[in-house]
Amino acid sequence: MNMDKPLGAGLIAFGLAGIGVTMQISVRTFNDDPGPKLFPMIGFTILILCGLGMLLVKSAAEAKPGPDRGALTRGTLMFGLMVAYSLGLWIFGYYVATPIMVYAFYHVFAGAGRRVPWRGAVYALAVTGAVHLVFSTMLNTLLPTGMIF
Length: 149
Hints:
mainly alpha, 2 domains, 0% strand
């Protein structure tokens, strides 16, 4: 079953509804600052463009009856990893949960034939450090602290 067309229509509807709600935000800003409307408008516009692309482009997947079993397994595993990461952030905090989960995501993305343990560790440390650098150092934002750490 191909879900491209209904999903594209849903993205367009969601994007239009989001733009409608965003237009109702009324916050005064200083010196022509775009304020809190800019990023939601950009995001919802991208959703609309993606929905239009899904509606207008004929995909090769239309001949297939649906996703293969491997894709469904990886998708379910990714969903489970996202839930585990959320729980890990809540319980252990950013600095413990993020390297472990980035390593786990690497193993799912790389697949059985291309997994290299040291490469996953390097990715985990690099992503954790880069996010810390951008958010904690440059943007002065607090990263999640857990109940334990």
